[in-house]
Predict the 3D structure of the following.
Amino acid sequence: MPTIDEYLAQQAATFEEELCELLRIPSVSAMSDHRDDVRKAGAWVQNQFRKLGFEAELVETAGHPVVFAQSPHVPGAPTVLVYGHYDVQPADPLNEWTSPPFEPTVRGGNLYARGATDDKGQMLTHIKSAEAWIKTQGSLPLNLKYLIEGEEEVGSEHLDQFIADNKKRLACDVIVISDTSQFAPGQPAITYGLKGIAYFEVRLTGPSQDLHSGTFGGAVTNPANALVKMLAALVNEQGQVQVPGFYDDVLPVTDAERKQMAALPFNDADFMRQLGVEALTGEEGYTTLERRWARPTCDINGLTSGYQGEGAKTVLPARASAKFSFRLVPKQAPAKIQAALRKMLEALCPPGIKMELIAFHAAPGVVVPLDSPYMAAASRAIEKGFGNAPVFIREGGSIPVVTTFHEQLGVDTLLLGWGQNDDNMHSPNEKFSLADFHRGIKASAYLWKELSQVKK
Ligand code: BES
Ligand code: MN
Ligand code: MN
């Protein structure tokens, strides 16, 4: 019988082929055309568990199905719930991909495909590590439950209901998610904080149809002019969000935490070079890492109005709309911000314009405790898998289910990210380093051992 490490080495190529198989399924949850592909990816994941002899169900929801699986029961051992998602973001703009998004391709040690890092590749590490235990030791040292959903990229709309309906089945001692990033190549990390989000669309309507901007301009309120003015009022010159009460509940960054962030090997010049920008801006009085990880922000995500075609067209558009979102930090209440924003925009909306404000997904930010024995166990497992002890970081992305788990199950999450910041999550040429894939599997295999030894 090979050891776990030997098995992982023997199976490396097979694991990569299996990941490619999953990546070839275009499970884009946002697009109704891909409904069947999303289900197919869910069924693929379910089959992985079946092949291990786990109980595995593809559970229907009002949206895309949820995969729930369980390893054979080990009495007296701790129970870990692994969460991940098998859905992916849309692949556009397609012409910016070097190789097609759903034809996984290896270049320079990286596997390129939509979903490679977010989250198919990272999620699969926790299945392959269980496989290594089963195939070499005959069983796992603890109880594993898996909840792999197909709606994460569209706001996990039906997951809260599933969790509320299945609290007993989901009961566990600790939760593990790999859907974040390392601090840098060669420097693994455990993420202890994520931002929340409050996402909106505002639609302004002016005259009943597009008008000649010479004949009518200056006399009729232009919805595009109104929109940019309203949006510009959201953030001031100091980078502070102007929604009344926005900072009331913000949990401040402590001096100790600021010190800890400042001690991480990070510099603005390298960061700027990496992104191709010549300057960085943000909230006054905070460093780049503080802004990215611990301060709330506002970004316009899409703007639509008027003539977008070739050349010039002198038009006063009848409509203008924008999608924009706030990233929130712990203690900020999304509902309070939604209400304050609505009031603010209503007051800013000029005469002659009708406004519609749609509130999309909202979730609070989270920080998880650093002093748990599970955190220490995860740290040891990562050191063994990656050859380097992890640093503790926060990130600016959102995984709303972390808060739901805390509220509904009373259990904290370990955010063990195997990705890199330049893996192009949600962007063209998304990738996952194959070395990180295999190190992630190895760290996960050690994680089961380390967590199994934590005294309840
Ligand atoms: N994997 C990301 C979350 C993430 C991104 C964590 C970057 C840490 C760093 C996840 O799939 C995601 O994209 N989440 C959305 C949430 C939204 C749809 C509610 C996000 O952050 O935009
Ligand atoms: Mn993700
Ligand atoms: Mn994502």
Observations:
- The two ends are 31 Å apart (CA to CA).
- The mean pLDDT is 97.
